[in-house]
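Re: the request from the purification team.
They wanted to know what the chain is likely to look like in 3D before they choose a buffer screen. I agreed to run a prediction and write the result into the notebook, where they can find it.
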Amino acid sequence: MLLPLSSSDPIGSIPKTKTALIVDDVPSVRRYHETVLQAAGFTCLAAQNGLEAVAILKTSSVDFVMVDLVMPKMGGAEFIQRLREDPVSAHVPVLVVTAETKSDGIRKERTEATGPVGYVRKPVMPKALRDEVTRLLL
């Protein structure tokens, strides 16, 4: 479910001129996240799975990655592991966007070993996204 953007959800505190890589297999979700982040001044790159994201990172530098966990070809947990194994991208903050609940240990187990990450739960509210991205980038 995608929620509408609201003018009451200020997004101005996210640092400007940053590049985000959005990795999600659902086109409407990718577009929604792009809309929210572009409104905050981000340049956005997009991939529909972890394999595409790995290919993008070979040619592009990003300031943070926003990734779904459940995707075809290469899921989010495996993508995060590959990201952390590459010295060039190991430092890049990751925001996991998932429908799994925070109390669900599956999410934490699948990403904890790969380094610190932030989490937001679907459906993503612009304010929750802004707050977590700001926390990751500051």
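For the purification team: Residues 1-12 have pLDDT under 50 and may be disordered.
Please add any questions underneath this entry.
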